[in-house]
Amino acid sequence: MKKFQIGIIFFLFSYLLVGCQQTLTTQNELDTNDHVEGFVEPEPSDWVEYSKPVREYMYYRTQAVIKNDINILWKRYPELKKTINVEEGINLEKNEVETLNNGFKVLDANYDIENYERIKVKKIDENEMIVLVHGSLLYLLDDFEETGGEYLMKVFLKRNGEQWDVVKTDEYTLLEYKKWIKQKNE
């Protein structure tokens, strides 16, 4: 029975990790194909500037899940508690914390922001950037089973002095992910 529950949780979590994307209207209507959207691999000299805030975000996200306290993430990124929309995949972190801690204790987490491909970036202006992340995220449960997997998401960054802050996350839904893969392979 416990394996069945883990299977259900894995399925739900995988669906949530894939998330969904929101259409941006700040420049042009966006397609789901990353090169059409204007995402490019950052120059090696810029890679650290954009990967570091994403890794930091993932650290706080996983700590919130492990400690079953969304405020760990929200204290660092207060903008993420605004405009939560599960159907559109916007700022799903609270849902992830609640779902993964429903009936289980999460012991540990491993993430790789470039497990499937290198990050890509899209510059909105001097103070705003979107990072496309295609990585993996696994959680270790108290029965030593794992849950999680692949995720595809946009991480919206805004400059705050000398650093970038995450102000929004937008995870692809399963349908959007399949469409993205299909267009990417065309």
From TrEMBL:
It comes from the Bacteria. This is Lipoprotein. The lineage of its organism: Bacteria, Bacillati, Bacillota, Bacilli, Bacillales.
